[in-house]
Please model this.
Amino acid sequence: MNILIVFAHPERHSLNGALLDVAITALQAQGHEVRVSDLYAMRWKATVDRSDFPDIPADERLIVASASSREFAEGGLTDDVKAEQDKLRWADTVILQFPLWWFAMPAILKGWVDRVYACGFAYGVGEHSDRRWGDRYGEGTMAGKRAMLVVTAGGWPEHYSARGINGLIDDLLFPINHGILFYPGFTVLPPFVAYKVDRLDDTGFDILAEQLRERMRTLTTTAPIPYRQQNGGDYQIPTMELKASLEAPGTVGFALHAAVTTQK
Model:
């Protein structure tokens, strides 16, 4: 299996870097081929601007979606973006690894998504009609590939529980799991989340490393998050509202979009 890890931490000699090594070693031991996009080491450009669309005339107003669509169709995107798109085409499984900063991914990783997910490549595909609203949310160009998050957090697991002050971790990661991974078609596995990492001693790291190895060993057998497909009949088109008959009693918010709730 071909596995791409997109790694977003500024210090390679860090806990995140050590976990990256653990994951690579575990995956290669199973015979998988692994590629890593180390965004900080690559000095990845995180902002979308006119330089991303070299063929747009200087006097033309920049509309990112249409410019992205045109440049993608004509092969005019920048070389760094095309290289990452090729990695995504190559990969059977994609892992995004990052520390949770201010309840989200680091800006450099969001910038990777902003630039690599070009219109026509990751979105804006498929039929738009009164029967379908494009190939997205379970369909699309990444359909058939798996994806998951490896996330480190300084807070306690209780802080990210249903009554925890930081909010439920599944809710915090929903925009990434559902919006960035499921949207273009990935089958999304439950995230691997490491808590209290700032207080981790050697024994704690050894336990955490073995837990990560186990997740890497079970990539092909782990049951995915059961998100509902957009065009599978669960949503009203074109309003994209979940049909009332499918709402489980007491289920609200993000949990509505999984056929079986993932909350603990």
User: Anything to note?
Assistant: The chain has one domain: 2-224. The first helix runs from residue 15 to 29.
